[in-house]
Specification:
alpha/beta, 8-stranded mixed beta barrel, 12 helices, 42% helix, binds ligand C2E, binds magnesium ion, EAL domain-containing protein
Length: 288
């Protein structure tokens, strides 16, 4: 198949690449034991109302606390876990842990009604068993369904069969919220999404990045701002909430608020942090 790589291109031994492949293989091999040893941890990142500044939700983001390598971000192992199918076990651990933490916040700070938002990999969402898994996580932890949000990417919303996941309606019927993650980077469109039981769109970081820290736009004619404006208007016409991802500055937050974006998430509102940091923020009260 080397020929298929292109005329005039030859497979050359590349020591850097093979070192990378070996590191990758070592990480994959270590995943199941890491799950058994309890080496995964969840960090939570605030999702904040742009109008009131109140923390309405937190997104659960998994990290691997590796005994030798330290804290490893999901970008280095989620893809591998998906390819090997390990994402199912890891994803279930994430879901149960997030529901358990959220139930504790709900019990301790009932008036905050803090929602926990959990990422579902395409492979998990595509598995018909996901509905029972979610129902069981809610039942065993006692978390009210409306305090759980599930984030799916546009491609995960479209199942492997190329049509919208049948589980979506069954998940929505449980009473959980469904969000489309990284919206604007995939192929779905709003006209299509309106037929699905989706509650929220998370606008992908690059649109927000286009709104620069100094309030100007990367593109002189404010193209990214106008895209955000159009997406927010359409989303609201379809009665969807909009969360802007990767908000890094106060100027961006102010522009997004002016564009009627509902909520924001990003370093400006707080970096992902251990559960205790969220508890402390809730304890801090309305300033949260
Ligand atoms: P995502 O769901 O889009 O999560 C948001 C990512 O943006 C997180 O990266 C977060 O740390 C990062 N981020 C936070 N604030 C800022 C900011 O101000 N600017 C920018 N540019 N980025 C910011 P993280 O934690 O590395 O996660 C990366 C991706 O890994 C996530 O993207 C999600 O797709 C995946 N992931 C994380 N946890 C899980 C999980 O439990 N299950 C599954 N299936 N996927 C997960
Ligand atoms: Mg990362
Ligand atoms: Mg997400
Ligand atoms: Mg995202």
């Amino acid at each position: 198949w080397a020929k298929a790589a292109g005329r005039g291109r030859y497979a050359v031994y590349d020591p850097e690449r093979s070192a990378r492949d070996m590191a990758r293989a070592a990480l994959v091999a270590g995943l199941p034991a890491a799950l058994e040893r309890g080496e995964f941890v969840l960090h939570y990142q605030p999702i904040v109302s742009l109008l009131e500044g109140r923390m309405l939700a937190v997104e659960a983001l998994v990290r691997w606390d590796h005994p030798e390598l330290g804290l490893i971000g999901p970008d280095r192992f989620i893809g591998l876990a998906e390819e090997t199918g390990l994402i199912v076990g890891l994803g279930e651990w994430v879901l149960r842990t997030a529901c358990r933490d959220a139930e504790r916040w709900w019990r301790e700070f009932p008036e905050a009604r803090l929602v926990v938002s959990v990422n579902l990999a395409a492979r998990q969402a595509d598995d018909p068993a996901i509905v029972d898994t979610v129902a069981d996580a809610l039942a065993t932890t006692g978390l009210p369904a409306e305090l759980l949000q599930l984030e799916l990417t546009e491609s995960a919303v479209m199942g492997s069969a190329g049509e919208p996941l049948r589980s979506l309606h069954r998940l929505a019927a449980l009473g959980v919220r469904l969000a489309v993650d990284d919206f604007g980077t995939g192929y779905s469109n709003l006209a299509y999404l309106r037929r699905l039981p989706i509650h929220c769109l998370k606008l992908a970081g690059p649109f927000v990045e286009g709104i620069r820290a100094d309030g100007t736009d990367v593109v002189a004619d404010h193209r990214d701002e106008r895209i955000v404006d159009a997406l927010v208007r359409l989303a609201h016409a379809l009665e969807l909430w909009v969360t802007a991802e990767a908000v890094e500055t106060g100027v961006q937050a102010e522009r997004l608020r002016a564009l009627r974006c509902d909520t924001g998430q990003g370093r400006y509102f707080g970096a992902p942090a251990p559960a205790e940091a969220i508890t402390a923020r809730l304890r801090g009260g309305s300033a949260g």
